[in-house]
């Protein structure tokens, strides 16, 4: 896969580039967090970073990721990977398991890019993830991001309600706010 134009690469294009290379090297990964909102909002929201979860508990996979990123021109700074030609985005890897609140039964969506299957949270799980950030970190902008995705992508409202009910407490209130803002 060709390198992106580093000066103007979007979250989606950088994710596709990295996920393709990860897959090519036998590393299973899933895009999570705010960059998923960038993908599903078709760039209306810009996260400024990519959170990529890897799914293996094998320490050798983490070492393989670091080697791959270095080979792609990224420098590791603390927990972030930064490409010297890409001043507007950085990458962070999240160790397993993938979860949204107390839910560990996450089934990612898949896309095919240049012969490789790459993964990201589904629109429904993206909305749940943003609601989780709203509930647990009091990040109002994450509720707005959930609404942005909901207005642009098909999703399962019943699944979001189920998740909010199971999370309990403030998540139930967040669901009501979410539903009211959709109308």
From TrEMBL:
<protein>
    <recommendedName>
        <fullName>Nucleotidyltransferase family protein</fullName>
    </recommendedName>
</protein>
């Amino acid at each position: 896969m060709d390198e992106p134009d580093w000066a103007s690469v979007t979250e989606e294009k950088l994710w596709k580039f990295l996920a393709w290379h990860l897959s090519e090297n036998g590393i299973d990964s899933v895009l999570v967090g705010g960059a998923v909102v960038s993908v599903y909002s078709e760039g209306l929201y810009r996260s400024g970073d990519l959170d990529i979860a890897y799914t293996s508990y094998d320490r050798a996979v983490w070492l393989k990721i670091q080697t791959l990123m270095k080979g792609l021109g990224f420098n590791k700074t603390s927990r972030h990977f930064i490409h010297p030609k890409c001043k507007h985005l950085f990458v962070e890897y999240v160790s397993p398991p993938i979860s949204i609140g107390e839910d560990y039964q996450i089934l990612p969506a898949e896309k095919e890019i240049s012969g490789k299957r790459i993964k990201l949270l589904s629109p429904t799980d993206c909305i749940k993830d943003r609601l989780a950030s709203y509930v647990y970190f009091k990040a109002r902008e994450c509720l707005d991001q959930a609404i942005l995705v909901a207005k642009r992508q098909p999703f399962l409202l019943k699944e979001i309600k189920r998740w909010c009910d199971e999370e309990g407490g403030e998540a139930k209130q967040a669901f009501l706010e979410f539903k009211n803002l959709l109308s």
